[in-house]
Amino acid sequence: MSQNNNASYSYRQMPLETLTKTIDALKEDKTFDYPKTVIDAISTIVSTVHDSYQANENAIEGFSIAIVQALQARPVSDEYMQINRTDLAEKPLILQLLILMQDIVIKQQLNQSVQQLVWLSIAMHTAALLITLDKKTDTKNILMQFKMAQFSASTRRTWLWQALPDIAQTEISIERILSVFNTLLQKRQSALVALKNNPATDTEEVAKDKSDAKAKLSQIEKITTAYQHAHVPQKPKPKRKKLPKNIKVKAINLADNTSKYPVDTIATRHNWNTTSSNDAWGSTRDDIEHSAIAIDLAFLEANIESHNGLTTSFEERIDHHEAPYVSYGEYPNPLIKYSIPLQTIDLSLQQNYMSQRNLALNSNTRLLSLAGYQALFAALNQDASTLLETETDTTCAGILLLSMITGLPVKSLLIPGYIGHPNIFKIKGKKYYIEHSLGITKRSTSQTLAEGDYENHSDTIKVPLPSWLIDNLLACELPVKEDFTAYLAALRSSIGLPYLSVNRIETALHVVLSRYTPDCHAHIADIICRTPAPHAPAMYYSSHTSEALMAHYKSALCILNSNSDFDLTYITAWHKYTVGSGFALKIETVCDIINEMKYWTDQSSNDEEHFNRTSIFVWFVFCLLTGVRPNNGLGRMYDIDLDMGWLLINDKPVKKVKSDRLIPLCPTLIRHLTDYRAYLINYQAKHQGYHDISAIIDNIRLGNDEALLKLLYERAPTAKSPTLKDIKRGDAYHMTKHIIDANPYWTRHFVRTQLENLGVSLSLINTVIGHEKARQEVLGRFSSSSKADIKRVASVFEKIAAQLGLSDITINHYPKSNHVGTSTAEVDHANK
């Protein structure tokens, strides 16, 4: 499959005596008592295969005769020859393989099964080599995969026999057999890619074919890797250098958008408020990304409404954070100033680079093509795993490869002691990985919610690393900037990528994840690549499993690894846990909350209390079926179109830059809002003496600039009647604290998570929730969504309404009618 060394395919010269001792050592296995005849048979088969590899000519005839004769002697007694799943599973894998081989001979199936018999013998010999080399995983893999090919009735396993060539026509040599496996591996990879690119991906037949293709690819992948690790010499593990004792590196926390390395090191932190130094390694002339120009930043602070008793979480601050603006004192170069608009259109914005990446413009020179990324990956992998003329070039390639597969900045990797530092790099057994935290705010103790009510229970992301690469880099001297410049220049020339730069290497993983990996998108890429919080607020409002994130990551590396030269077997399944918002509640929990709120509303003791509880209930319904930020005065009537089912909203009312967006209204929400408006009109009719209230309700009825959802509250003692006020989030929290003891901002986390769970595309989620990148708002210049696209999300909101039981809930008037001019003594003081 892959090789991370400079060796050609040559046989590992292991003496036969060593293998024989390995087989004899099976007698000492305390978990199973091997009969002597079994040990002798396995030794005979392994010796026969071993001698055939070293024969000067193809001795296939003598090879098969010797194996058949050994099996005809029936070394496995009848008591062990039970060919079924349960009985086989009780025995060691190498014995299971011998049983299946003996079964072929006993049933006289040699005419059609010599091929299987010889390939099974090769697998047994390979396993013996791997046992000697103490490669337990590879040993299990090759024995298990060939066992399943012979034992299973599923075409997912037995396809191997039709795919492998007739062994009589195959030279018994390491090079030839490895070539056979690699050819099959490439065919299975191509077949899976073709299925993934099939436009009819939703059909059950295509889904089954894709599942079958994945199973077949996994089978040949494990066999190829195991065979290669047994027969291809591996580099000895390099001796590590001691890490500097004075290096201070903080663990990666995305909530902390500060430098992760000391500013007094060789990798000086880039100060955006000053002219940058000449650190644009290998940059091309007139490259906007690496031009050393002075720029001025003006951050618009997150303006958050404060509420009594409610603490503003980090996630909410990020949600309200405004993208910083950039203004250039002058253009990097006069050539750029007069170039085509696509190059200059965004020069005044901080989101210049990321926005144009998301636009996927063909003329965008800040990106490489997919073929370019694949060629780059292949070149770096080859240089990093091969002893070049100079060790410096190998180290440069290794650092760039590590940056490419992790997104770690090259400047950080050049700090002495950074690679391998325990705050960033973790070692668990033989596994290497980097670990970072999203920095999610710890949930406060709730009187009404238990840990099981939340979707997510961790904010830790782990990205596995190839141990050979880390070991090599830890044993090498770090290169200097001039070394990188020279290596990049040579690399740029050799693979024909004039736009190649350090920045394009560092961002490669994000680009491949967000653009070329099936079923993945920019949000997943932000999580895996550690995009800082202010530029990726969406990752604090969703839920993912560690298993799914790792599958996306491996898929991205598979796409980069188009030549199959990079060994991906180090990527194995982690412990499964959910990652994301610390405030997203499960759908079942929210359903219970809704039911409790409705019961609480129906149990009102008077008309005024019923009014306030009904208003709070509809306020929560409004938040749960739109995902809006639960702010004061939510839902102005002149922004709500109940006939067309639209909500025009600017739910950052205190921010300095206005950016409205559209949210579709689902039928259930339209019905609740329509019924609530009728409820207000009915209350007006019953209390005609409340003139202030009547005037406010008239404005609501006429669709004027008035919030729809209101609370009754008593004015000064001298006032003749109560009046209405806009609902504040603090009101909603305090009035329902006995039902849900959590900041009502949880509704937004819940909606964002459910939209993704229900399969809404990332662009539409960001449009509806308000998490678009700068200048990509749906009503803005670079919108990637149409109003028709947004309108279709209403059907998804309707599914959420049905899951919460809101489709079956109606707004009822208070059953006991009050007389006109009812005393205000019983009015529920919502603002107490």
TrEMBL record:
Picking any one GO molecular function of the record gives: DNA binding
Q: InterPro entries recorded for this chain?
A: DNA_brk_join_enz, Integrase-like_cat_sf
Top-level taxon = Bacteria
One GO biological-process annotation of the entry reads: DNA recombination
Keyword list, A-Z: DNA recombination
**Protein known as:** Uncharacterized protein
